[in-house]
């Protein structure tokens, strides 16, 4: 019973990360300059990573240099670049749901890299989650899907799936805060040349821009990824990945509450299906 209680607490703490990530789409479209996805991704990662490095005062050693950059690319550079591209080209709720295939990818990668068992209940939960987000996206009145935005969202989901599994496989002998600092900094460094060569210079930031970037960097990056990596060290990657369904739930709720977007009966059914799929996935991983 004690193990189950500890496991449930770890799941709840980890769930805070994707729930907060669900606000990314709202902040991106309402507070940030439009048309600068790579600059925004870089400014979200690098300052937060450097700040954490100043706090932990520890750099990678040996094999952890290349591993930090690989994980930084998977979890931040490529993933965030694709996320912001999809956020700019799709409505918030749609952008947040196109990555619904990620938990199923994580199940396959966990089997490949971690020799984790493939649980039928976890697969069923992943499929149910896809149905739920499909109801959110394809409900009557939903905006038409942009092909580039959808492709970017799916590419980001694949990247995050690899990052999730490899973060569990590669666990350095340092604190989760230090591990987070390494990855954030590496991801930001990788995005610097991309932003410089592929996009024009950012315009002078407004107060809203500064507040939006501060939120995404401190709360949406430093805090949430610390919680996420902490969770990956304690629960199975497939169980953690299913928590990602909370992002589209939060994003769509924000679209309804803050932007006046419609919420149809089909979308409400989608909410229920998504939440049940998360519960089912956690049930499949619960320690016996």
Write a structural description.
- This is ABC transporter permease.
- Keywords: Membrane, Transmembrane, Transmembrane helix.
- Belongs to the EamA transporter family.
- By secondary structure, this protein is mostly helical.
- The protein has 13 helices and no strands.
- The protein has helices at residues 2-21, 24-31, 37-56, 64-89, 92-97, 102-114, 120-138, 147-169, 176-198, 207-232, 237-242, 246-258, 265-285.
- The chain starts with a helix and ends with a helix.
Helix content: over 70%
Q: What's the SSE pattern?
A: HHHHHHHHHHHHH
Note the beta-strand portion.
under 5%
Alpha-beta content class? mainly alpha
Coarse shape? globular
Instruction: Please give the radius of gyration in angstroms.
Output: 18 Å
Q: How does the major sheet shape up?
A: none
Total helical elements: 13
Mean pLDDT, all residues: 87
> Can you tell me the residue ranges where pLDDT is under 50 for at least 5 consecutive residues?
none
How many strand segments? 0
State the end-to-end CA separation: 9 Å
Subcellular location: Membrane
Main location: membrane
Protein name: ABC transporter permease
InterPro entries: AA-Vitamin_Transporters (IPR050638), EamA_dom (IPR000620), EmrE-like (IPR037185)
Summarize the structure.
It is a multi-pass membrane protein. The chain is mainly α and 288 residues long. The chain contains 13 helices and no strands.
List keywords for this structure.
288 residues; mainly alpha
List the helices and strands and how they pair.
Elements lengths: L1 H20 L2 H8 L5 H20 L7 H26 L2 H6 L4 H13 L5 H19 L8 H23 L6 H23 L8 H26 L4 H6 L3 H13 L6 H21 L3
């Amino acid at each position: 019973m004690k193990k189950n209680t500890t496991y449930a607490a770890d799941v709840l703490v980890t769930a805070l990360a994707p729930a907060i990530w669900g606000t990314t789409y709202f902040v991106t479209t309402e507070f940030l300059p439009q048309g600068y996805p790579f600059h925004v991704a870089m400014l979200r990662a690098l300052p937060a990573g450097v700040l954490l490095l100043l706090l932990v005062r520890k750099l990678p050693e040996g094999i952890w240099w290349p591993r930090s950059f690989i994980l930084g690319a998977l979890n931040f550079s490529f993933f965030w670049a694709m996320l912001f591209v999809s956020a700019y080209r799709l409505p918030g709720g749609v952008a947040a749901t196109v990555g619904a295939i990620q938990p199923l990818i994580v199940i396959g990668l966990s089997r490949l890299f971690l020799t984790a068992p493939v649980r039928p209940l976890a697969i069923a939960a992943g499929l149910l989650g896809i149905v739920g987000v499909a109801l959110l996206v394809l409900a009557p009145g939903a905006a038409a899907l942009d092909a580039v935005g959808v492709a970017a969202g799916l590419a980001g989901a694949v990247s995050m799936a690899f990052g999730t599994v490899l973060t569990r496989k590669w666990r350095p002998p340092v604190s989760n805060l230090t591990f987070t600092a390494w990855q954030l900094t590496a991801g930001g460094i990788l995005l610097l040349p991309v932003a410089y060569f592929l996009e024009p210079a950012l315009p002078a930031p407004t107060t809203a821009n500064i507040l939006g970037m501060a939120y995404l960097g401190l709360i949406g990056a430093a805090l949430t990824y610390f919680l996420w990596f902490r969770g990956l060290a304690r629960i199975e990657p497939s169980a953690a990945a299913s928590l990602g369904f909370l992002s589209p739930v939060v994003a769509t709720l924000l679209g309804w509450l803050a932007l006046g977007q419609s919420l149809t009966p089909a979308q409400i059914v989608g909410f229920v299906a998504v939440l049940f799929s998360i519960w089912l996935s956690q049930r499949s991983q619960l320690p016996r």
